[in-house]
Amino acid sequence: MRQLLSNFVALLAGFLGVRLISFISTWYMINALGPEKFGVLSSGLAFSAIFSVVLNFGLDDFFIREAAHAPPQRLGRLLSNGFTLKLLLLPLAILVVSIFCLLTDNYWWVALWMGLYAIVQSFFMLCCSVMRGLERMRMQAGLQLINMILIAATVIPLTWLTRDVNVLAPLYTAATLSVLAVAVFFLRRYVAFERLRVQASALSGIFKLSIPFGINYVLLLMFDRVAIMGITIFQGPTAVGLFNSVYNLVLITTVIPLLMITAVLPMLVRQSRSEFHLVGPTTSTLLRYVMIVGCAIAGSLYIGAPVLIRIFDAEYASAAAILQTLSWSIPGLFAATVLLNVLETIGQQRQCARLLFVCIVVATPITLAASIWGTLMAVPWAYAASQYILAGTLLIAFLRHAHLSHVFTIFCTPLLALGSMVLLFHLIPNNIALYGLASLAFIGVLLLGGAINKQDWLIVQRIIRRDPTPQQVV
Length: 474
Hints:
There is one protein chain. By secondary structure, the chain is an all-alpha fold. The chain is built from 19 helices and no strands. It has helices spanning 2-55, 59-67, 72-88, 90-103, 108-133, 137-162, 165-187, 200-224, 226-234, 236-252, 255-274, 279-308, 319-327, 329-345, 349-373, 378-399, 407-427, 432-449, 454-465. The chain is globular.
């Protein structure tokens, strides 16, 4: 348990550190460059972020799972083949970058370096995925943090000196290339690299195994964006602005289940290969914690929405009600994230793709109907319903392969605790006492429903006292 907590803390600390440094450097460039120049740079960064994901189409997820159980020699062979596959795709990548440069002829230099940054970043992301599979979370988090520090330490001074985006763009590529070299150097301690060579059968095998992960990512992105698409088409830009202002707050919270599943993933991979009977108990515990955290965040957003919305201008005041409705989607969103990753871990990637497609077919008419015939407030409810449809579908699929104990306690008790917080919000005036009473009510319902038990308290006490704890989560 301590190892899992250490993994989660390392990932969370790395994520927060990267986001903080990114925020500081972005804030400075916004003010120093002005709207036009910063717009050029941010467009290039957006392209590089999307393009690097496309270049890694499913390879990250594949290598996390392989690194968790493969011996060093086999992992080295796989990683060498992964690098070879990326190098073979470079001509296509360069072609895409060239097209992007032609489309942005006034700033082709920025486009060129942002394209190269995406290519280098895709190699770095592959190395990071292997580190996560090897449970070297601190190393991965440290390298990502160093990468962002290098970028900020060079971009901020040169922004102050030159105010020229053509000078800034190459710095992203240079910093990431340096950290990539360090990442490969450290990986050689744990992975027996082989010489890069073209092996058609091995490369096609990796490509076929990684493609389903990439398809699932695209389908999940499509599923999540149906609501925005419906509002954009049928309710206009003002409605989109109101919805997106709070939807992005909800979307940020998804990093929590992603980090939690990433921390547990190596152990789940090993269990699915050699001790499959432990997959059910491990997933039960993980889902219980994820639902508790998800409902706590949802309740906090629901109660705090009238205060949180004040960070925006007065014209966004009506978005508080949208945020309160969207907060109900968070538990379903968290559960779906975990179940999708667990199903992929036990080798059900293709089934996940089919289920995601079915959920898109079901959710799209519901959301579009809310956009066409309902008010703006109807769309968040449709979005929340879609998330629970997806979570329920994935849960049924998982139960066909493994057993979950105490399903009511895992899912319903945290939701009842969330309901108690919402009820108190409507019964008590919004003041400081409300937050204390809501927290007590939430914990009380969890205790009464058995979602928090004596074993959880013992684990926390052992971690605080640094006593040895079992490595399994059951």
